[in-house]
Specification:
The complex is a heterodimer of chains A (84) and B (145). Chain A is built from four helices and no strands. With 84 residues, chain A is mostly helical. Helix content of chain B is 18%, strand content 41%. Chain B contains three helices and six strands; from the N terminus they run αββααββββ. Chain B starts with a helix and ends with a strand. The chains are: A mainly alpha (84), B alpha+beta (145).
């Protein structure tokens, strides 16, 4: 998958969960401080990504989802593993 | 499978806010099926509504949430001395039919994503063969310190 496509799709997922405009979800915007994400929303983001891409991301990775950029990185890592 | 006394060992809720009577199927972390018998003696029927008893939808959501807590039952038992408080984070529920006295709610909950302290679950409530409500809840389990 093209990196821009993955980033756009994940930005849309995040925007939907946190009920914000996708344009507000900048690559480096911090979820907790800048976007008002809480731990429950973070889990919802994780679950939505797992469902969309049919991947399993372990619980420990939740703490690494702090920005769109990092989230895309984690998703890419598990997508790559899946695709071998 | 779990009678009301066993349920009370896990759920912190009590009268008049304990909204499941029995758990008929339980795979911890995987699936719960619970039952709630609805009678005219429920307190809320006197006001909701006079002359036309209908169970409030928010209480159906509460029954779903209490059933969901049973998913955490093994952990709750294991840490018997730790008190847990459960917080509902969100609920997206659609109601299909009204619930009235005499109905037996069968509440089925399957987790969509569950980690040690948080869960997102899918729940449905049936009366006989009829679906009365379905939706998605998210909640957190917090140990009291």
């Amino acid at each position: 998958m093209q990196p821009e496509v993955l980033e756009k799709e994940i930005r849309d997922i995040i925007a939907q969960v946190i009920e914000k405009d996708p344009q507000e979800v900048l690559p480096e915007a911090r979820f907790y401080e800048d976007l008002g994400v809480d731990s429950m929303m973070a889990l919802e983001i994780l679950a939505a990504i797992e469902k969309k891409y049919k991947i399993a991301i372990p619980e420990e990775k939740l703490a690494e989802l702090r920005t769109l950029k990092e989230t895309v990185g984690v998703a890419r890592q598990y997508l790559n593993e899946k695709e071998g | 499978m779990y009678d009301i006394l066993q349920i009370q060992e896990i759920l912190p809720q009590r009268f008049p806010f304990l909204l499941i009577d029995r758990v008929i199927e339980l795979e911890p972390g995987k699936k719960v099926v619970a039952v709630k018998n609805v009678t005219i003696n429920e307190q809320f029927f006197s006001g909701h509504f006079p002359g036309k008893p209908v169970m409030p939808g928010v209480l159906i959501i509460e029954a779903m949430a209490q059933s969901s807590i049973m998913l955490f039952c093994e952990k709750a038992k294991e840490l018997h001395h730790t008190k847990y408080t459960y917080y509902l984070g969100s609920a997206k529920v659609r109601f299909r039919r009204p619930v009235t006295p005499g109905d037996q709610l069968k509440i089925t909950v399957i987790p969509r994503k569950m980690i040690s302290t948080l869960a997102i679950v899918e729940a449905k409530v049936e009366v006989g063969d009829n679906l009365v409500a379905e939706g998605e809840l998210s909640f957190a389990a917090k140990a009291e310190v």
